[in-house]
Automatic annotation (TrEMBL):
It holds the Pfam family TetR_C_6. Residues 52-71 bind DNA. The keyword Repressor applies. Residues 29-89 form the HTH tetR-type domain. Residues 1-28 are annotated as: Disordered. It comes from Geodermatophilus africanus. Signal peptide: none annotated. Transmembrane segments: none annotated. The keyword Cytoplasm does not apply. GO terms for molecular function: DNA-binding transcription factor activity; transcription cis-regulatory region binding. This is Transcriptional regulator, TetR family. Keywords: DNA-binding, Repressor, Transcription, Transcription regulation. PANTHER family: HTH-TYPE TRANSCRIPTIONAL REGULATOR BETI (PTHR30055:SF234), HTH-TYPE TRANSCRIPTIONAL REGULATOR RUTR (PTHR30055).
Length: 227
C-alpha cells in the first residue's frame, strides 16, 4: 500500500471537506486563538510531519472534535499559523510613519526608521525561529503554504516600496531608482541574513548584524550611513 505524501494528513487528522468559517463571536475567536497557540506548541515540539490533531487538541485542553469546528485539518491550522506569523513578521519591517529625533534631517530620520525596522524584524524573527524553520520545510511540499509565504513577502515588499517612493517624493532618494526592484533586494538581504543567523546558526553578533544591515540599506538608497 503506498504511503501518503508528506502533504497528506495521517489517519485521524482528516477533517470536514468544507473548511470551517472564521468564528464571529468573541468566544469563538478566543477558542481559535487557543487552538493556534496549542498548534504552535505542538509543531515546535514535534515538527510538522509527526504532529497530530489529537496532540493539538490535548494541548489546547479541548475535545478532539472541537478542533474541526475551527480548522479542517492539521495542514489547515499550520497554514493559518503561517499567514498570521508572516504578516506580523513582515509588518515589523515597515519604515514609514515612525517618529524620530525631533531635530533630525529627512535623510537622518529615514536612516533612523530603517534601523528601528531592522531591530523589530530581528526581534520578531527571534520569537518565531522554530516556526520559520518549519515553514521552510513545509514550503517544499505544500503549494498553499508556499503561496501564503510568497503573498506575505510581496505585501512586505509593497510596504518597503511605498517607503522608498515616499522618500523619492520628498527628494531624499534619487527619483530614477527602481523602487520595486530595490524593495525586493533589500527585503531579501535582511531576510536572508537573519534566517542564516537564527535558523542556520550562523556566527553573527546581533548589534553588528543590525548595524551592517542598516548601513547597507541606507547606502543602497543613497542615504548617509551611521558609520
Amino acid at each position: 500500500m503506498p504511503r501518503p505524501s508528506a502533504a497528506e494528513p495521517p489517519a485521524g487528522d482528516a477533517g470536514p471537506s468544507v473548511p470551517p468559517a472564521l468564528p464571529t463571536t468573541e468566544r469563538g475567536r478566543r477558542m481559535r486563538a487557543r487552538l493556534l497557540a496549542a498548534a504552535r506548541e505542538v509543531f515546535e515540539r514535534d515538527g510538522f510531519l509527526t504532529a497530530r490533531v489529537t496532540d493539538i487538541s490535548a494541548a489546547a485542553g479541548v475535545a478532539h472534535g472541537s478542533f474541526y469546528t475551527y480548522f479542517g485539518s492539521k495542514t489547515a491550522v499550520f497554514r493559518a499559523l503561517v499567514a498570521e506569523t508572516m504578516d506580523d513578521l513582515y509588518a515589523s519591517m515597515a519604515t514609514h510613519g515612525e517618529a524620530g529625533p525631533p531635530d533630525g534631517s529627512p535623510a537622518g530620520l529615514a536612516v533612523h526608521r530603517i534601523d528601528q525596522a531592522n531591530r523589530r524584524f530581528v526581534a520578531m524573527y527571534r520569537q518565531n525561529t522554530a516556526l520559520m524553520a518549519l515553514f521552510e520545510q513545509v514550503t517544499t511540499f505544500d503549494p498553499e503554504v508556499r503561496a501564503l509565504r510568497r503573498a506575505a513577502r510581496e505585501r512586505n515588499v509593497g510596504r518597503v516600496r511605498h517607503s522608498i517612493e515616499q522618500l523619492q517624493r520628498d527628494g531624499v532618494v534619487a527619483a530614477d531608482l527602481d523602487a520595486e526592484y530595490a524593495a525586493h533586494a533589500l527585503v531579501a538581504m535582511v531576510n536572508g541574513a537573519v534566517h542564516y543567523w537564527l535558523v542556520l546558526d550562523g556566527d553573527f553578533e546581533e548589534e553588528r548584524l543590525v548595524a551592517t544591515l542598516t548601513r547597507l540599506w541606507a547606502q543602497a538608497l543613497g542615504l548617509p550611513s551611521r558609520g
